[in-house]
Amino acid sequence: MPNLYALLQQSKSHPTSLWFLNKVINRYVPFNKPHHIKIKTVGHDFVETEIPYSKKNFNHVKGIHACAIATIGEFSAGLTLLCQFSPLTYRVILSRLSIDYLYQAKKPLIAKAILSTVDKESILKALSTQEKTLHDMQTDIIDIDRQKIAIVQSTWQIKDWKKVKTTV
Description:
CATH class: Alpha Beta
Number of helices: 4
Radius of gyration: 16 Å
CATH topology: Thiol Ester Dehydrase, Chain A
Order of helices and strands: HHEEHEEHEE
Strand order of the largest sheet: 1-2-4-5-6-3
């Protein structure tokens, strides 16, 4: 597998890098491929992704399905953490997920998750004295008209691979 951390660091919204990164993600995270989730922007402390308004993502009333919205929220938060914590050094896994659905999604969606420098330093400080730490992330989901669709709260367990007892 290519070094995802390096790819994320290099991408920084360059179209060719983002195209390649999206290809790699679709191969190594096959669950997301049918949803056609794309990484839109990789910033210093955030990741924006988008999901199309397409039949594969519809629910019974032709809105974007609640699980597709949850998936893009979780995906954005996870990638944001992977931008800051190399998956070669740290295991980053989802621990909890909750979603507040605010408005029916009838257009393409954009999800944005942010990890501040203060939060990153807090995680590193916790990991210097503990085997693992939990960190809460918020992903805001809007449609292309900037209507707020959902707020995804995800809790992530971050742990140094050297302290992981299970095998991959």
